[in-house]
Design goal:
Layout: E1 14-23, E2 26-35, E3 40-44, H1 51-59, E4 66-71, E5 74-75, E6 86-89, H2 101-105, H3 107-111, H4 116-130, H5 145-157, E7 163-167, H6 175-192, E8 196-200, H7 203-209, E9 212-217, E10 220-225, H8 227-232, H9 237-242, E11 247-255, E12 260-264, E13 269-272, E14 278-284, E15 290-291, E16 299-310, E17 313-320, E18 323-329, E19 338-342, E20 349-352
Parallel strand pairs: 3-8, 3-9, 6-7, 7-8
Antiparallel strand pairs: 1-2, 1-4, 4-5, 9-10, 11-12, 11-14, 12-13, 14-20, 15-19, 16-17, 16-19, 17-18
Length: 361
C-alpha cells in the first residue's frame, strides 16, 4: 500500500514519516502515520506485530535507522526521551517505593524543577479529573488494577505532555472496571488537547475508543481508516480476520445485475451486493447470520457442531456441506441440531484473493 494512504490532510501534531527500524530479526518497515491534535489513534495488531515497538520508537527508547518523527513541526527523531514532551503509559504499573500515590504522581514535576505550590495545583486538577483524590495517601501496592491504571495516567498527564502513548492500557484491568476506564480514556484528547496513540490486539477496545485505526502486521502498516470502514469494509484479508470476521471462505465471484454470485469450494453459492469478479474471499460477521428461512437468497441447512456461550448470546458453528459458518444467536440450540440459516446479501462482504491484501493464496 502507498504510504500516502496513511496520511491525513491538515497539519498533524505528530508526524511519523517512512520510519525504519531493525531489532534482531524484527523490522519496522516504512512506518508513516500522522496524528492530529485531539485524535485518538489506535494501532491494532497481533502479538509481536510491532505495536509496542512503534510506541517505543516515538518515545525515544529506540532510534530508527531512517525516517523522521516530528511533534508540532519539530524534528525529535534523535532527541533524548526526556526532551520529547511525550508521556508513555505501559501495560504494567510501575511504582517508585516507598513513595505514596501523591509522591509517584509528582515525580515528573519534581524532575522538571516545578515549585511545590504549582505541583500541588497541577496534581489536584488531574486527580480530580481521574477521580482518585482519595488515593493520594495510599501506597501503590495497596491499589487495585483499575486504581493503578488511573495513577499511571495521572503521572503521565500531570506533566502536560504534547502526546500520550498507551501500551495496552486495559490488558490488566478487570471487566467490571474496564468500562469506566474506557470512558475516561476517550475523554483525554479533548480534555487535555493532545493526541493519544494507543496500541492493542483487542478489536472491541479499538472500536470503542478510536477516532482512527491503523492495522499493523509484521512491522508494516497495512491499512488505516475510521472504525466503521475498518470493521465493516476492511481492505485486507488480515484486517478482516483481526476485527471479527469469523467466516472467510474462498470462492470464485461472477458479476450479476445486482452484485455478484460467489461459488464456494463445496459448491454453495452466496449472493453479495458487491460488484466483483474473480478469486475472492466471502466474509461474513457472525452477528449477520440469522437462524431463519425468510430470505430468498443465501438460505442453507446445516448441522450445529459447536455451541459457545457469549456475553450477548450464543456463538454457534454450523457445518454446511463441510464448510463451517458461525452465527451469534439469542437462544441456545443443541449440538447436533439441524438448523436453517440465512445471510442477507448486503452482509456478504467480499475481498479479492490476492497477495497484496494478505490473503493466504
Amino acid at each position: 500500500m502507498d504510504s500516502k494512504t496513511h496520511l491525513k490532510e491538515g497539519n498533524a501534531l505528530l508526524q511519523i514519516t517512512n520510519v525504519n527500524l531493525t531489532l534482531g530479526t524484527f523490522r519496522l518497515n516504512s512506518i508513516t502515520l500522522n496524528v492530529d491534535q485531539q485524535e485518538y489513534l489506535i494501532i491494532i495488531g497481533r502479538t509481536a506485530s510491532g505495536k509496542t515497538t512503534i510506541l517505543k520508537t516515538i518515545a525515544g527508547a529506540y532510534k530508527p535507522s531512517s525516517g523522521k518523527i516530528l511533534i508540532d513541526g519539530s524534528d525529535i527523531t534523535t532527541m533524548p526521551p526526556e526532551k520529547r514532551s511525550i508521556a508513555y503509559v505501559s501495560q504494567i504499573f510501575s511504582s517508585f517505593d516507598p513513595k505514596n500515590v501523591r509522591g509517584n504522581i509528582e515525580l515528573g514535576l519534581r524532575a522538571r524543577g516545578v515549585p511545590k505550590p504549582e505541583r500541588e495545583k497541577l496534581i489536584d486538577g488531574v486527580v480530580k479529573d481521574l477521580g482518585i483524590e482519595h488515593l493520594l495517601d495510599r501506597m501503590p501496592a495497596t491499589l487495585s488494577g483499575g486504581e493503578q491504571q488511573r495513577v499511571s495516567l495521572a503521572r503521565a498527564l500531570v506533566t502536560s505532555p504534547k502526546v500520550l502513548l498507551l501500551d495496552e492500557p486495559l490488558s490488566m484491568i478487570d471487566p467490571e472496571t474496564k468500562g469506566s476506564i474506557i470512558r475516561l480514556l476517550k475523554a483525554i484528547p479533548e480534555k487535555y488537547n493532545i493526541p493519544v496513540v494507543h496500541v492493542t490486539h483487542e478489536w472491541n477496545e479499538a472500536y470503542s475508543l478510536a477516532s482512527r485505526i491503523a492495522v499493523i502486521n509484521q512491522g508494516r502498516i497495512i491499512e488505516v481508516g475510521d472504525p466503521e470502514q475498518i470493521f465493516n469494509e476492511p481492505r485486507s484479508y488480515l484486517t478482516a480476520k483481526l476485527v471479527g470476521f469469523y467466516d472467510m471462505h474462498r470462492g470464485e465471484a461472477t458479476l450479476t445485475n445486482s452484485g455478484a454470485t460467489i461459488k464456494l469450494e463445496n459448491g454453495i453459492e452466496l449472493k453479495s451486493r458487491m460488484k466483483i469478479n474473480g478469486s475472492v474471499y466471502a466474509c461474513v460477521r457472525p452477528e449477520r447470520v440469522k437462524l431463519s428461512a425468510s430470505n430468498e437468497f443465501n438460505k442453507f441447512e446445516g448441522q450445529v457442531v459447536e455451541v459457545f456461550r457469549e456475553r450477548f448470546g450464543f456463538l454457534i458453528i454450523i457445518n454446511i456441506k463441510n464448510i463451517e459458518f458461525t452465527a451469534l444467536v439469542g437462544s441456545k440450540p443443541a449440538k447436533g441440531d439441524v438448523v436453517t440459516i440465512t445471510i442477507p446479501e448486503e452482509s456478504v462482504y467480499v475481498i479479492p484473493a490476492t497477495e497484496l491484501n494478505g490473503a493466504p493464496l
